[in-house]
Amino acid sequence: MRRRPADFRRPVRRRFSHWIWALFGLFTIVGLLLFVVHHNHSEDRIEQSVLERNSRIERVAHDRLNFTEEISSATSFSRQLAEQITLAKAYVVIAKEHSNLHLAWELSSKIRSSQLLLSKAVMRGEPITLEEAEPIIKSLSSLIFKAQDAHYDISTTIMTMKSHIQALEERANAATVQSTVFGQVAAEALPKSLHCLNVKLIADWMKYPSFQKMADERKNSQRVVDNNLYHFCIFSDNVLATSVVVNSTVSNADHPKQLVFHIVTNGINYGAMQTWFLSNDFKGSTIEVQKIEDFSWLNASYAPVLKQMLDPNTRAYYFGGLQDLAVDPKLRNPKYMLLLNHLRFYIPEIYPQLEKVVFLDDDVVVQKDLTPLFSVDLHGNVNGVVETCLEAFHRYYKYLNFSNSIISSKFDPQACGWAFGMNVFDLIAWRKANVTARYHYWQEQNADGLLWKPGTLPPGLLTFYGLTEPLDRRWHVLGLGYDLNIDNRLIESAAVIHFNGNMKPWLKLAITRYRPLWKRYLNQSHTYFEDCITS
């Protein structure tokens, strides 16, 4: 009789353990069913969001919320709020335009609440919960429906938003044009310090006849036509910039006394240029200064570009303001009207007795001895250049109008571009190929200005097509007047660095990182430098 209770209790314990395992299996099945439901995207969005939140909370225990993934999820509350905020903002604009200020205020209030909730979610690193999102989503949806009931239908919304986008684009374009214009004005304006220097130098030129006598002596020197020497030509109206070019060249030359510099300026700056170079020593090099007004052969009947410059419509285009905003202000730059910029196409006429010259722009700095350039074999070509087509956009198609058959029939749009600024010209080959006549031909073809953008490079690409010899890239490194990220190693290895662009080193616009490279060659010992420049 006593064994029966014992026999009865053992089966009870077994049945109890069976129940535990059965319940555990049941919970496991339920969990698996929930997991399947979660991955099969139930139609009930709220339940699905809750399940997603549960799975995300488990992941958050190991890693904080990735808000980018959260707001990209099609079922997250963050995504719903972000979409409603965007739509509500559009209706705020429309409501204000229809003078429904109360609705606009209500929408703005809910937008701020939604943004605050999104910010909290980011700060705490956890997804937005159903309890947090539901009241805001419902109230914001109600206001959006209210806006739709007020006849703010989708077509009205689209038209309103299009008009606002168009207005913003016009404002952005106007601001861009204005910024470009201001930048150009700053780049073209003569700083007070340079103006002061010019005034003082011109005053000395007029005051001391000895300067004019010395200038005549230099002009008659046999060194200026001696082809055993190294000849450089610079065309500029900027005294200080030209001085840096000359000083940097002689400072880095192995034999500076064998260098001859041929400078051409305009009548306004001729006295200042002469006085500066006559009153400073440049290590025994020879310096000849001429003014463009003395070239009587350079007239409208000979030079098509000069004829175009004298045309009233052309002058109105460059000097008549910026009435047409459709035209890029950069293309209206009056520097394109300076004949000094086009003298590079007349070098054999200016120096009929010379055989080879190196042309230098006034915004370059020389860092190595340039005399080896005169022994570079150009293989019968006229123009030794550094090509610039390492970047894809420096191809012919970038500068020329290939929709015109005159261009497309004669030139390869993928031909490699190059740069003026440091060029080796074989004047014997130039005269043989009659390059200046080619330049005249293309200027006449472009009388209507439709073949290329303004400037001297596009006609140069046409004129010297098939007559250029590529040089090592280290001879000429460009971009110091606009590019902030030039490799220091490239700058250090360069023979010539070029400040092409608006940020010239003598302006306040100059890139601070590069300016010392130019400033080190300023002749700071001159009295006028201290009076005008440093003050």
Entry summary:
This protein has helices spanning 3-39, 45-60, 67-72, 77-97, 101-124, 130-149, 154-188, 192-207, 209-219, 239-251, 267-278, 304-309, 312-319, 339-342, 347-350, 396-399, 405-408, 427-433, 435-445, 457-463, 488-493, 515-519, 527-534, and strands spanning 230-235, 259-265, 286-291, 356-360, 364-366, 383-385, 422-426, 468-470, 496-498. The chain has 535 residues and is an alpha/beta fold.
SSE blueprint:
Layout: H1 3-39, H2 45-60, H3 67-72, H4 77-97, H5 101-124, H6 130-149, H7 154-188, H8 192-207, H9 209-219, E1 230-235, H10 239-251, E2 259-265, H11 267-278, E3 286-291, H12 304-309, H13 312-319, H14 339-342, H15 347-350, E4 356-360, E5 364-366, E6 383-385, H16 396-399, H17 405-408, E7 422-426, H18 427-433, H19 435-445, H20 457-463, E8 468-470, H21 488-493, E9 496-498, H22 515-519, H23 527-534
Parallel strand pairs: 1-2, 1-4, 2-3, 6-8
Antiparallel strand pairs: 4-7, 5-9, 6-7
Question: What do you see in this structure?
Answer:
Pathway: Glycan metabolism; pectin biosynthesis. Belongs to the glycosyltransferase 8 family. Its EC number is 2.4.1.-. It is a single-pass type II membrane protein. It is an enzyme of class 2 (transferase). With 535 residues, this protein is an alpha/beta fold. The protein folds into two domains: 67-152; 192-534, Spore Coat Polysaccharide Biosynthesis Protein SpsA, Chain A. 53% of the residues lie in helices and 8% in strands. It contains 23 helices and nine strands. It has helices at 3-39, 45-60, 67-72, 77-97, 101-124, 130-149, 154-188, 192-207, 209-219, 239-251, 267-278, 304-309, 312-319, 339-342, 347-350, 396-399, 405-408, 427-433, 435-445, 457-463, 488-493, 515-519, 527-534; strands at 230-235, 259-265, 286-291, 356-360, 364-366, 383-385, 422-426, 468-470, 496-498. The strands form two sheets. A seven-stranded mixed beta sheet has the order 3-2-1-4-7-6-8. A two-stranded antiparallel ribbon has the order 5-9. Helix 10 links the parallel strand 1 and strand 2. Helix 4 (77-97) runs antiparallel to helix 5, helix 4 (77-97) crosses helix 7 and helix 8 (192-207) packs across helix 11 (267-278).
